[in-house]
Amino acid sequence: MGFHCSHCGRHHDELPMAFAAPAPDYWAPEFAADPASELTSDTCVIKGQAFFVHGLIEIPVVDSGEIFSWGVWVSLSQDNFTRALKLWDTPGREGEPAYFGWLSTELTLYSPTTINLRTNLHTRPVGERPSIELEPTDHPLAVEQRSGITRARVQQIAETLLHPEAR
Asked: What is the pTM of this model?
């Protein structure tokens, strides 16, 4: 089911139910030439000193039964990152305790900043992106994760991200 966009006035055939950041906010293009740095679709290492995993903050859409997802990056300690990688392709990894991390993606629709919100990263079965649980604070993103959002809020997010020049 699509939506009529209040920014451009056109009908969009689908309402996007996910948006994702391609890298942690700390990644810079010049790191690609550094042998101690690596960015994949699932993990990131910067200069052998900062370690990140790509996961999903999932938010229930209360009036449709759907899930809206933010694809974001979480920093982990080196020990937790090493452990997560060791088990990356191991069936049953979802039984692993959650890994503490710091949100490393700025979601500009939220104020205050989303950088360094406290998180727990939960692994899921092999082939599924980890889920990210935010600390239950009064931050608007944490509130949305706990309470859910409406399809109208999803449309507002989509319109803002699809038309950044209108901000």
From this structure: 0.94
